[in-house]
């Protein structure tokens, strides 16, 4: 695969990336990822880990000897795991629609898992939310808005990595920005 977007936005590889984002301090072994990503067969997961590793999206953080086997701990290369504006612009319109569809499907799967968990716990305390807002912004204010939103996301992403509370729930925040409609 040559296209970075195809590598990153594949549904299984998105799950791997998300698992690694949640465990970036210590990384994860492939076996730990199998336990976290239960709906993907082990051989399939290993194949996708290798694709991400070959593309430089993930890297080996450390290796530990366990008996006679060397366990590799993987971590996300955060810079490589992002698409630049130039990389996105190279994609065809059809590819962009496919990528956004994969992204939305990933969110739907996470939301379904969340609802299933609520049902298992027999809880009606649904803390999820979504909204749609149309803003009338000129180009300069639109760029400013995107930059501020990005800074806010990075601030809280970095803050959560410093929290020592291992029992704190993981919150998924997702945005889709459509410049004009």
Topology overview:
Layout: H1 4-8, H2 11-22, H3 30-36, H4 42-55, E1 58-66, E2 69-76, H5 85-90, H6 93-120, H7 139-160
Antiparallel strand pairs: 1-2
Helix pairs in contact: 3-4
Short description:
By secondary structure, this protein is mostly helical. The chain is 52% helix and 9% strand.
- Specify the biggest β-sheet: 2 strands, antiparallel
Strand content: 5-15%
Instruction: Give helix and strand order, one letter per element, not per position.
Output: HHHHEEHHH
* Total count of strands: 2
Low-confidence stretches are none
**If strands are numbered along the chain, what order do they take across the biggest sheet?**
1-2
Large-scale geometry: globular
Q: Structural class of the helices, strands and pairings?
A: mainly alpha
On the 0-100 scale, what is the average pLDDT? 86
Termini separation = 32 Å
Rg result: 18 Å
State the helical fraction. Answer: 40-55%
Number of helices: 7
